[in-house]
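pasting for the record
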Amino acid sequence: PALSADRTFKPEMSEWQPFRDAIDLLYKNIQLTCEQPLSSLMVTSAQEGEGKSTLSIGLALSAVRANKRVLLIDANLRRPSIHKYFHISNEQGLSTQITTTLNESNQINVYPLSIEMAGSSIDVLTAGPVPHDPVQLLNSIKMQQLLSVAESSYDLVIVDTPAILGLADGLHLASLCKTSIIVSRLDKITQADLNRALSILEQVNAIGIV
């Protein structure tokens, strides 16, 4: 499926019918592509600035309109942005929830914020403060536990990640999520970079390009 979208999400876009129709069609195509019920979806891109956060938010809204209980996670622990789109605090989030329990034996819990938008409610877990070593956190047992708990508590977990090229973050997260998609911005990406990103994600579970 293909979608052309501005890389910067604006709240009014959630009310713009052409955007909603395009995202709803894409969400349905993703559902039809997956043989098993979709419980977690990673959204990434080859490079920064290609629209993955816009798509992550749009897909979350589309799933909510389809009566799904959705959790949107900002797992970009290097350049978090989801909190900016929703105008919410990033003082607590994914990094703090993992860090505070790394040395504890108890089961990790998920503490998102509930956001009202376009007449729908989405639970959002922001990235939290940028940690010293993002890869260590994303590759930890606690990150695996958090995603497992989230998948058991929600119909769909959408994970917004850093760009896949040059960083191990996205590959770690792709191995934890049930499936992934890559966003490509035609006036930004080169064919060579897109091919490299696809070859990386095809090792795990990529289902297509937007």
